[in-house]
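Researcher: Here's a chain I'd like modeled. Treat it as a single chain, no partners, no ligands.
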Amino acid sequence: MTFHFDCVFYYVSDMDRGIRFYTDVLGFKLISRDVIARFDVDGVLFELVPSARYGSEHSRAGNARLCLRVENVEGTLRELKSKGVPVSSAEDKPGGVLGSFEDPDGNEICLWQGV
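Model: Modeled as a single isolated chain. Structure tokens:
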């Protein structure tokens, strides 16, 4: 068997709202949209998939997270909060600082600042 990376994706209940969040709030580059929306995040394919079409029983299942590396977790959390995004507190962890927030469908997004 040989595996190749395809993408990371989240199920969302409202595609337009999801696209606005990822483009307007996070600044992701939308590269295409048909049934799903595709974004380029630092050369990694990130997709939004409509939960109504593919089965809402899949949404929020499992424990996968999108993790974004940032220069300053606390500063990024403050900026997100100023845009109306509920955020966690920054936490010191072995090897760095971790923070998190959720998209409008409750998908957790982690922020990581390595030391």
